[in-house]
Specification:
With 366 residues, the protein is of the alpha/beta class. The chain is built from 13 helices and 18 strands. The protein starts with a strand and ends with a helix.
Length: 366
């Protein structure tokens, strides 16, 4: 995607051919900075503190983190130890496990002296395939937006509500939930995006709004609790969100607050779509509420907020009454019954086991 006229991915190989460079997403929206990763520890740290975030990008970063680890130790033990360290960084997004499983299965049969080159090749392939998947999601999702646009008055925008950041910053490029929006906008379909702020980390206000602005897509940031009101008054034509893990039955795990949007959409008759890249499907799980591990993050994310002062300084301040206990579950689960459709790289599917298994039989087989 474009940043100030320059094309970027969110992660790329440095010019020296072995270092890995990323966009530091903890600096948004007031600064755009890139950093270089040279070690396994740096890659794991970047995932843990959310310098990179979003299920697809976490998986890509883990793949490159494994490459960095193999620069020091290509043995079986070194490979397995590095996989374990990366897997421990974030528990909810299944792409992390998927990418590491793919890397491990690819590399273990290879002689240790050949593993490093093979690892870099596989990491690059994971990134390129993510871009292709997101472009396909964009194509299928744009058709849904076009169908809504055809029922509206000429020039009237399709109003889309999204939650968290499932944009190109959450993937290698294009994004999942935003890919249909970008493609529709580029094709001349009028669109407008209601951007949930997405407390507590404000990924909507900080990230989604920033990247939509860079691309020239009309958008409005709203408080998380405004979505139901907008739907009640007919100001939302459709909801499109992303997902960090989806069960075989179609239950969807996404950023905390997604479930509430799905409930409001159901009550108001607003279509609720989930942009679903196939690596986020976990066919080993059936019941999302019982089986998906929900990450509990540090309370500081709720009790403090970072922003730009009137004097131009970036500062972090406390916003919660001193002495109050703080809980910070990072995700919730939306049951399949509330999902209108899953926008995948192989088409728009019903949120059920039969549809998912028929579309992705190779994933069911493991």
């Amino acid at each position: 995607m474009n940043v100030n006229g320059r094309k970027y991915r969110t992660i790329w190989l440095a010019d020296d051919g072995w270092g890995v460079e990323i966009i530091d997403q903890t600096r948004f929206p007031h600064a755009f900075e890139t950093i270089r990763l040279e070690t396994l520890e740096q890659a794991a740290h970047a995932i843990r503190i959310m310098q990179v975030r979003g299920a697809p990008l976490i998986g890509a970063t883990a793949a490159y983190g494994l490459c960095l680890a193999l620069r020091n130790d290509t043995s079986d033990m070194g490979l397995m130890t590095a996989c374990g360290a990366l897997l421990d960084t974030r528990p909810t997004a299944v792409n992390l496990r998927w990418a590491l499983d793919l890397m491990r299965k690819t590399l273990l049969p290879v002689p240790p002296e050949q593993r490093l080159a093979r690892a870099y090749g596989m990491a690059e392939r994971i990134c390129d395939e993510d871009v292709a998947i997101n472009m396909a999601i964009g194509t299928h999702g744009a058709k849904l937006i076009s169908e809504v646009a055809a029922r509206k008055r000429p020039g009237e925008p399709v109003n889309i509500l999204t939650h968290c950041n499932a944009g190109w910053l959450a993937t290698v490029d294009w994004g999942t939930a935003t890919a249909p929006i970008y493609m529709s906008h580029d094709a001349g379909t009028p669109v407008h995006v209601w951007v949930d702020e997405t407390r507590p980390r404000n990924q909507g206000a900080f990230l989604t709004a920033w990247e939509l602005g860079q691309h020239g897509v009309p958008h409005t940031v709203v408080a998380d609790n405004a979505g139901g009101h907008l739907m009640q008054h007919g100001e939302v034509d459709m909801v499109i969100v992303g997902t960090d893990r989806t069960t075989a039955e179609g239950d969807v795990c996404n950023k905390i607050g997604t479930y509430l949007k799905a409930l409001a959409a159901k009550d108001c008759g607003v279509p609720f779509y989930v942009a679903l890249p196939s690596p986020t499907i976990d066919f080993t799980l059936s019941n999302g509420l019982r089986e998906i591990p929900i990450e509990e993050r540090i309370g500081d994310e709720v009790s403090h907020i970072t922003g730009l002062t009137a004097g131009g300084r970036i500062e972090t301040i406390e916003i919660v009454a001193p002495g109050s206990d703080v809980a910070n579950p990072a995700f919730d689960v939306t049951p399949a019954r509330l999902v209108t459709g899953l926008i995948t790289e192989r088409g728009v599917l019903s949120a059920d086991r039969q549809s998912l298994a028929a579309a992705f039989p190779e994933r069911v087989a493991g």
